[in-house]
């Protein structure tokens, strides 16, 4: 699908099912634009559930991770980015940090995160999946649609064209 978030805003802003994220994310990964249906995770400084989720084979999915905005460790590293690519994930949005940013920049996936941080996360296996998560002024809900490019991130209840 070819799109720009600017053209989607022109066509759909003001509609009840349409939200625009606050511009707070850094760009990582080799794909500047990506879109897909949302799967959500809520974790804090623990990426065991992230690994479990990215092991699933999917089509046209985007993983949205509410990491509580933590800047104390990374939730995504190069191994998880490669796993996401190999299993068909189109992109990842992390309300938290990533690491291995230079290596992730070479992977054919779009990733948005607050920052990079060199410390890996804990492995306590705490977290929730498919809950409504809210950050950047947007409600991210399972099976809604996310569109991201260099201009921003849009979320809609329905597929946009």
What does this protein look like?
The protein has 161 residues and is of the alpha/beta class. The chain is built from four helices and twelve strands; from the N terminus they run H-E-E-E-H-E-E-H-E-H-E-E-E-E-E-E. It has one domain (5-156): Glucose Oxidase, domain 1. The strands form two sheets. Strands 1, 2, 3, 4, 5, 6, 7, 8, 11 and 12 form a ten-stranded mixed beta sheet that branches. Strands 9-10 form a two-stranded antiparallel sheet.
Computed Rg: 14 Å
What's the shape?
globular
Question: What quaternary form is this?
Answer: single chain
The major sheet is characterized as: 10 strands, mixed
Average pLDDT, to the nearest integer? 96
How many beta-strand runs?
12
Q: What is the correct CATH architecture?
A: 3-Layer(bba) Sandwich
Q: Examine the coordinates and then state which fold CATH places here, giving the name of the CATH topology.
A: Glucose Oxidase, domain 1
- DSSP summary: helix tally: 4
CATH class: Alpha Beta
Total separate domains: 1
- Low-confidence region ranges: none
User: What is the H/E string?
Assistant: HEEEHEEHEHEEEEEE
State the secondary-structure class. alpha/beta
Q: In angstroms, what separates the terminal alpha carbons?
A: 9 Å
Question: CATH H-level name... which superfamily?
Answer: Ribonuclease E inhibitor RraA/RraA-like
Helix content: 10-25%
